[in-house]
Fold:
Amino acid sequence: MIQAPRGTFDVLGEEAARREVVEAHAKRILEAAGYERIETPAFEYTELFARGVGEATDIVQKEMYSFEDGAGRSLTLRPEGTAPVCRAYIEHGMRKRAQPVKLWYLSSFFRAEAPQRGRYREFWQVGAETIGSGAPEADAELIVLVAELLESLGVKGTRLRLTSLGTPETRAEYREELKAYLRLHEQRLSREVRDRIELNPLRAFDASDPGTRSVLRDAPKLLDRLDAEDAEHFHQVRSLLEQAGVRYEVDPTLVRGLDYYTRTLFEFSSDALGAQSGVAGGGRYDRLIEQLDGPPTAASGWAAGVERMLLAAGELPTSPSLTDLYVAIAKPDGSTRAFQLVREARRAGLRAQLELAGRSLKGQLKHADRIGARYVAIIGEDSQTSLKDMESGDQRELATTNVIPTILRGSRLS
Ligand code: HAM
Structure:
């Protein structure tokens, strides 16, 4: 038996209905704030992610599904949406539009990660990007919108962590300072952290062994090294969030797996999720468009994982897909009239289905009951039809032309 690839899943029945609820809330919340839907291709030229997401990131190093096209050019299934949206912004000359351009998407992404609960190889994100604004209000607005989305879905146990990364220049200086500090305390660090001082000193903040953690408690923090403008920007984002009543924790050790961030960085997690607790994340990326050969353009955004939101959400009110009318065929010669009746019923706004499996009349009534049909029309001789109310069990003969008006009036049959 051929199964779906490891780390992927099918979306069936009830699950599809829960996803529609996510889409409806995302659409309502984001479009009310002026975001326009965008969809980009499922694959892009690999260099977009190599340059956009960053050569040194785990995503680019280990997690991309890449393949060659017929001409030997490398393509990659998109592992994230920000670089593609920026590519589209540049390609379509969106800087000529009124700025900022606000875009949202609901798309699937692909990462070759080890599958586990909440971590898949094909997964879906709702994302929002505000391109062409450097204002702290843009960051605060984006964060408020994720908070609203999570709340509307009843995502439980959420926590928001926030920090600022400043500029790449500040970060480069800070890295040197952190390296020097780590070297000074080398003998108390874990082997792994010690070996990576030169390559990735910031990773040390992720370590769990007590020795390394005690060294890091007193380590210099990037947040204390921001220049005056970056510090002021961060201060404003924080006060806007406070005014909006969004609770957050400043976490100077917050790191995310993408290289494009500058200034504001944030992550929402949920304690209903276990190990893969990150439910949504984002930040400002003021250099990315330029890095992709566009003009200098400030921008900011986030993405929220659809599966993780659903795992951490409460009961979602989904409306069961009911059938108003089931058209049964008692005699073989009734099929043309039955076919016509379902079409007319649908045109009149009813949800109508037709017998398609050649069942006996008894079998058809049983089937109508299983799919929760409200009425069954049994096409009989000539222009007569028998209409059965499945709730009350009442049944009556009437002219086929009267079937739809009778159902629309909701009149009792007896
Ligand atoms: P990210 O943190 O890599 O950010 O992904 C955003 C969200 O996607 C995560 O918080 C998580 O809910 C979900 N997610 C990520 N990987 C997986 C996976 N393997 N399985 C299931 N869910 C997953 C980004 O992708 C950035 N593009 C966000 C952004 C937009 N930054 C600025 N603008």
